[in-house]
Amino acid sequence: IEVSVAYGTDLDKAKEIMQNIIFSHQRHYGAKPTVLVKEAGDYGILLKAIVTTKDPDENVVVCSDCLQGIIQAFEENDIVIPYPTHVMYKK
């Protein structure tokens, strides 16, 4: 799972939220996942975590569930997921 967060975000908090959401999923398999900073990009900081499942066929659904949970938890904790915007000026 890869998710961008805005510059200025408490990265430790964002990483902990991602880790806890993934680890608490009933079909996650193994130890708590490591969440890493993958990139400092133009619009934000990209965080990455690996989701492991016992059955590889379940992985896509578990990743989807976890991503939805992460987005919701970020919103509840005022962690912004950045996106590019365009400003149009009229002359």
Written overview of the protein:
The chain has helices at about 10-25, 60-75, and strands spanning about 1-5, 35-40, 45-50. Helix content is about 35%, strand content about 15%. β2 (about 35-40) and β3 form a beta hairpin. With about 90 residues, it is α+β, with helices and mostly antiparallel strands. The protein is elongated, with a radius of gyration of 15 Å. Strands 1-3-2 form a 3-stranded antiparallel sheet, covered by helices on one side. The protein contains 2 helices and 3 strands, in the order βαββα. The model has no long low-confidence stretch (mean pLDDT about 95).
Q: Which key terms come to mind for this protein?
A:
three-stranded antiparallel β-sheet, about 90 residues, alpha+beta, 3 strands, single chain
